[in-house]
Structure formats: structure tokens, C-alpha cells
């Protein structure tokens, strides 16, 4: 056996360095029919190997990825790397910000034939539009709404959060924007721009006797729900599917009459994209029902914006049961917040939390 | 005498070894300190200074937002008076955690230093430290399993009294203090232990032979003589505890709102770095003021 000496260690380390350098210096495989660079979260649909392979075989377009780990990082990458990306996955709220800074180009929907079956409510979302033109293809959506233990009465309003019947049995999402939105919906206001913040504050404060805990991760939610610490909670639609499917938790996802607190991710094309044609082809591929079927059943996916794709899922699919297309009619979508409003929301939630802790 | 020799040696020229004029002492001191202070400047001082600058800005300097300097972040305690209550809670939690750490840590250190020898002592010291080498998050989450209703604590309690109610107290301030005491106890044990092992056995034997009971020995000899250890342990515990956010968040549930969680929220959720920075510098100022006020008492304690 080789002894661990300084010399051997050095040999090993320098060997590793040389190997690493050689590996990274290898030329990339040459491709004949163009390529596109996609900017997205890692492991979020666009980088599935089977899909990229099939897409390359069909169109001859190679798909290369770059990733971001926060939405502000995504915007920074768009701003500082003109010409580097052909397709970017971005939230509706961020899309409004990106179009305001002229980072995106309008979408030529005639080149995205699958877009005809995209739900109209999503396509007409104001955050995706500027001067009447669409700047992103709506791709997937989800929402935050109420989750309740199986067998308990199904609530029809967010006001149930303050119902004395749930004393000490409610969990809230520790997220300022979500909680302010819930408070706004409880008081019948616009969740993106509530005029009467005092009413929102009072509504949230009125929940105090019911609030058992504030959760911040899905794992924490699952553990506490499994330990029967609460019965009613603000929760994510996708999270409820995962809790039910993977952890076998008896949870029912309910969207009350005020509607869910929704989000939509879109596919945008940067203003400086070198291969916009290829990007449009890939966007069309991503909203195709056949791609969505594979993604949702093999890997697990959020709800598709394409109602045809959602309808193609098996009827007993949990994701399909939770993301009913009719929810889209009532669902409000979180939109871009100006800095001062965001700050006001955060301060409000901080104050409510301090009140809960008293 | 020596310098005479040196002079004569240099006068003799090539016949003796050449003597170089010694460098001024500050040069060698600076050279020796350079690596340490250079590293500290780069890794600690500059980032902190940046944060201090951030705390005077109107918004996080990212993207195209223009940089506006303002003092409004430091007005947070006036504009948002509920922060005062949170700060008070944090100080209270810090006080109780430090107090509990001092009691348990000191007793554990006494037991270690006075009742064990050689290998046994080393073994026990390692056994005390061993759990603290696991990830903090894991340890806190394991507390949730103990403290929650129908958790381990309840199970054991119900073995004795099957019909009694639950004694689980997860999501209370007590749970937060338990988690924090667990987290910071080793600092107290180690500092107290180091102070206690230096006490000469003869002093205690003398006291015992003069008829002192154990409590007299404990409070009249051990505590005063180990005071430096207790005080440094208290400082090492108190300061991080009032800024802690993981324990309150996981064990405190609804009541787990402290300055630590408020600052964390400003950095992660609200993306308002300036407010987070100004709150932490305000907290730093308060802590310095507290230690400044009590420094006289502390010094007397160390001198005793």
C-alpha cells in the first residue's frame, strides 16, 4: 500500500489539477444545425436529457444551459450578458420588470403553434404584455391557497383562517408577500395593490389565536402536519401534490371563492438573442402536450399553462386534480411590486409577526 | 558590554562575521502581523465596512437602482415601534440562555475539573463535545421531536403517568431557550473548565480542613476564582444568542420572533439589505453599551 507522504499527496494533487485542466480544454462537440442557450433554474423542465435529445433529433438544434439561483441573479445575467441567451424562464412579476428595462423582445406567436391552446387568462396577463404585445409564452403555473386535513369541512373563504373553530390549529406561510395577499383577499381587496393596508394588518392580526406556527420550508410543513400540529394552512398547490404523493399525508387542497394566490412562469426571448427562431421552436416544444405528459408523469411538474396539455394527463393524476383549469378564472397572479410597496408589505408582516409573538 | 563587542567586531572588518544593523523593531512586528491582519482586513473588516455603508442606503444596490444615501434605516426603531418589543424579547432570551448556561456549564465544569483525572477526564470532555460536532440544524430539529406533543418527552412522561396531559412545550419561548442553551453550553463548560483547573487543590483542602461546607467552597472559592472563565463564557454566549435566528425560527413557531429573525428576513425575504445592516449595527451598539456599563463590575469580577 502506498504511504501517505507529502510527495505522494503532491503527486496526486498535481495529477488531479492536470486532469481537470485537460478535461475543460477539450473542444466542445461541433454541431451543424444551430444551437440555443437557455437560462433557467437547474432541474426545472428545460434541461431534461430525454427531452433535449429528442428535440435535437427532430430539429437539429442543440440546447445548452446556463442556470440562475435567484430571480434577481437572472435579471443581472440578462442585463450584463447581451447576446448570450436565446430563451429565458422568468416569473410574470419579473417579466414586467424585464420588459420595462427592454431586456426582452416581443414573441411572434405565429411561430409557436401550440400557443393556441394556452389558457386565455394566462396569455392576457398584464405582466406578460407591453403595448398590447406578448413578451413571454406562459409556460407553467401554480398557486398558494388553503390546505386542510382530509375529512374536515371544506372552507369557502380565506376568512376561515380567523374562524374560532380552528383555535391553535392554523399554520401560516412565513412569506410577507403571500400573507399580505391573503389578508387582502380576506378583506376583499386587490392582492397586488391593497388600498387599505390597515385593514390587511387587522385581518392578519385577527388570526392570532389560531396561529400555531409559521412555516418556511416544505419539509417543515410536512413534518408538522404529519405530527398533527395543525389542520389548516396556507400552502402551495405543488407542495400539496408532493405531500400527498410522496409523504402520503391526508391533505386536501382547497381554493376558496376569492381565488388562489397564483404565479406563472413564462418563456421569454432576450432582446439580443442570436437564435430567436430556434428559441421559439424550443418554446413550442416545451408547451407541447406530449412533452408535458412525459415531464409531469416521469419527473413531476407544475401545472401547464396549456389547457390541452393539462387535459392530456390521466384523470386521477394528483397534479391535474389540484390544478383545475377553472381556478384560473378566479386566480389572481402575483405581479411586480414597486420597491416602496414591497417594503411596506415586509414591514407589515414583520409587525404582524411581532404581534403574534407577544 | 555586548554592544561594545559588536562595535569592535564591525571595526575589525573581514576578520570577523559581518554584523548587519538590526531593523527597527516596528518593521519586524509589522511584517509578522501582516499575514494575520491582511487576512482579517480582507475577510472581515472590508465586508463589514461595506455592510456599514449599505446601512446608509435607501435600497439594496443591485441592478439599475440609483444609490441614494439616507439615515432613515436607523430610524427603524422609531418608525416601527414594535421592533422595540422584539429587541426586548431578544435581550430577555439572551439573558435566560446565558444564565442557564452559566449554572449548568459551571456545575459541569466543576464536576469535570474536581472529580475526574487523566484519561477519564479527557474522555468525558470529548463526550461533552461530541454531540456538538454534528450539524446545528440537525440538533435543533431533533429537539422538535423531543419537545412536541406526543414527542419523546411526552412518551416517557406518559409511561409514568398515563392519564396526565401533554407536557410538550414546542413553539414556546422555553423551547427556544432550551435549544439555545444546548447550542452554547460547550463554550461555557470549556471556559469555566479552563479557569477551574488552574485552582490549586491545596486551597480547597485548606478550606475543607477549616470546616467549610461544600456550598461555602463553591460560592466563596470556586465561583470567585473561576469568574474570568464565567465572564468570558457569558460574553461568548450572550452576543451570538441575541442574534440567533435558527433556533427561534424552528423551536419558537409563532413566538419565535427575535432580532435575529427580523434581520434574517430583511436579508433573505425582503431583499432589504440596508435595513438588515442598520438593525444589526444598532444591535451591536446596544450590546457594546451593555458591556460598557457593566465593564466595571466585570473587571472587579476578574480581579477577585
Describe the structure.
The complex is a heterodimer of chains A (358) and B (304). By secondary structure, chain A is an alpha/beta fold. Chain A has 15 helices and 14 strands. In chain A, strands 1, 2, 3, 4, 7, 8, 9, 10, 11, 12, 13 and 14 form a twelve-stranded mixed beta sheet that branches. Chain A has a two-stranded antiparallel ribbon with strand order 5-6. In chain A, 46% of the residues are buried. Chain B has 304 residues and is mostly helical. Chain B has a single domain (79-303), classed as Orthogonal Bundle (MetI-like fold), CATH 1.10.3720.10. Helix content of chain B is 73%, strand content 0%. Chain B contains 14 helices and no strands. Chain B has helices at residues 2-11, 25-54, 76-79, 82-115, 118-129, 136-147, 152-160, 173-197, 201-209, 214-225, 227-242, 246-252, 259-268, 273-303. In chain B, α6 packs parallel to α12 (246-252), α11 (227-242) packs antiparallel against α14 and α13 packs antiparallel against α14. The longest helix of chain B has 34 residues, at 82-115. Classes of the chains: A alpha/beta (358), B mainly alpha (304). Chain B: It is found in: Cell membrane. Chain B: It is a multi-pass membrane protein. Chain B: InterPro entries: MetI-like (IPR000515), MetI-like_sf (IPR035906).
Amino acid at each position: 500500500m502506498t504511504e501517505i507522504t507529502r510527495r505522494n499527496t503532491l503527486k496526486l494533487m498535481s495529477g488531479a489539477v492536470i486532469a481537470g485542466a485537460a478535461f475543460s480544454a477539450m473542444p466542445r462537440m461541433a454541431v451543424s444545425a444551430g444551437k440555443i442557450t437557455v437560462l433557467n433554474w437547474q432541474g426545472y423542465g428545460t434541461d431534461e436529457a430525454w427531452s433535449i435529445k429528442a428535440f435535437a433529433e427532430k430539429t437539429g438544434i442543440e440546447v445548452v444551459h446556463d442556470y440562475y439561483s435567484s430571480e434577481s441573479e437572472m435579471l443581472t445575467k440578462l442585463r450584463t450578458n447581451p447576446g448570450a441567451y436565446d430563451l429565458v424562464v422568468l416569473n410574470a412579476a419579473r417579466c414586467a420588470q424585464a420588459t420595462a428595462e427592454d431586456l426582452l423582445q416581443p414573441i411572434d406567436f405565429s411561430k409557436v403553434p401550440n400557443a393556441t391552446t394556452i389558457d386565455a387568462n394566462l396569455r392576457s396577463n398584464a405582466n406578460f404584455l407591453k403595448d398590447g404585445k406578448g413578451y413571454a409564452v406562459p409556460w407553467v403555473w401554480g398557486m398558494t391557497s388553503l390546505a386542510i386535513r382530509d375529512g374536515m369541512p371544506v372552507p369557502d373563504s380565506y376568512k376561515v383562517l380567523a374562524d374560532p373553530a380552528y383555535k391553535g390549529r392554523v399554520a401560516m406561510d412565513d412569506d410577507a408577500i403571500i400573507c399580505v395577499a391573503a389578508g387582502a383577499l380576506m378583506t376583499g381587496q386587490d392582492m397586488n395593490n391593497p388600498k387599505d393596508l390597515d385593514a390587511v394588518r387587522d385581518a392578519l392580526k385577527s388570526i392570532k389565536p389560531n396561529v400555531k406556527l409559521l412555516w418556511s420550508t416544505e419539509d417543515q410543513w410536512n413534518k408538522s402536519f404529519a405530527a398533527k400540529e395543525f389542520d389548516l394552512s396556507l400552502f402551495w398547490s405543488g407542495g400539496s401534490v408532493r405531500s400527498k404523493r410522496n409523504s402520503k399525508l391526508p391533505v386536501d387542497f382547497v381554493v376558496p371563492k376569492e381565488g388562489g394566490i397564483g404565479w406563472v412562469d413564462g418563456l421569454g426571448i432576450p432582446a439580443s438573442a442570436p437564435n430567436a427562431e430556434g428559441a421559439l421552436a424550443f418554446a413550442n416544444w416545451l408547451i407541447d402536450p406530449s412533452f408535458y405528459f412525459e415531464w409531469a408523469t416521469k419527473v413531476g411538474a407544475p401545472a401547464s399553462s396549456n389547457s390541452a396539455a393539462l387535459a392530456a394527463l390521466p384523470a386521477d393524476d394528483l397534479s391535474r386534480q389540484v390544478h383545475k383549469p377553472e381556478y384560473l378564472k378566479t386566480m389572481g397572479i402575483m405581479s411586480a411590486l414597486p420597491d416602496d410597496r414591497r417594503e411596506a408589505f415586509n414591514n407589515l408582516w414583520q409587525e404582524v409577526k411581532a404581534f403574534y409573538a407577544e | 558590554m555586548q554592544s561594545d563587542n559588536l562595535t569592535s567586531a564591525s571595526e575589525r572588518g573581514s576578520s570577523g562575521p559581518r554584523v548587519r544593523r538590526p531593523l527597527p523593531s516596528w518593521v519586524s512586528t509589522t511584517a509578522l502581523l501582516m499575514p494575520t491582519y491582511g487576512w482579517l482586513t480582507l475577510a472581515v473588516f472590508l465586508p463589514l465596512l461595506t455592510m456599514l455603508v449599505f446601512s446608509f442606503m435607501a435600497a439594496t444596490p443591485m441592478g439599475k437602482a440609483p444609490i441614494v444615501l439616507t439615515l432613515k434605516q436607523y430610524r427603524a426603531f422609531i418608525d416601527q415601534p414594535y421592533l422595540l418589543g422584539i429587541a426586548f424579547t431578544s435581550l430577555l432570551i439572551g439573558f435566560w440562555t446565558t444564565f442557564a448556561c452559566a449554572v449548568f456549564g459551571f456545575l459541569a465544569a466543576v464536576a469535570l475539573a474536581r472529580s475526574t483525572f487523566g484519561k477519564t477526564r479527557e474522555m468525558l470532555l470529548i463526550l461533552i463535545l461530541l454531540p456538538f460536532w454534528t450539524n446545528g440544524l440537525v440538533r435543533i430539529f431533533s429537539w422538535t421531536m423531543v419537545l412536541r406533543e406526543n414527542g419523546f418527552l411526552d412518551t416517557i412522561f406518559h409511561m409514568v403517568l398515563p392519564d396526565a396531559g401533554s407536557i410538550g412545550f414546542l413553539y414556546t419561548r422555553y423551547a427556544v431557550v432550551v435549544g439555545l442553551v444546548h447550542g452554547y453550553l460547550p463554550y461555557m463548560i470549556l471556559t469555566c473548565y479552563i479557569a477551574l483547573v488552574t485552582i490549586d487543590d491545596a486551597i480547597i483542602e485548606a478550606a475543607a480542613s477549616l470546616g467549610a461546607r461544600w456550598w461555602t467552597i463553591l460560592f466563596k472559592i470556586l465561583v470567585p476564582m473561576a469568574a474570568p472563565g464565567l465572564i468570558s463564557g457569558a460574553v461568548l454566549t450572550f452576543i451570538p444568542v441575541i442574534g440567533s435566528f435558527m433556533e427561534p425560527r424552528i423551536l419558537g413557531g409563532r413566538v419565535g420572533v427575535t432580532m435575529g429573525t427580523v434581520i434574517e428576513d430583511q436579508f433573505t425575504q425582503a431583499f432589504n439589505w440596508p435595513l438588515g445592516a442598520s438593525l444589526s449595527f444598532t444591535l451591536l451598539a446596544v450590546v457594546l453599551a451593555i458591556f460598557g456599563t457593566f465593564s466595571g463590575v466585570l473587571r472587579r469580577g476578574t480581579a477577585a
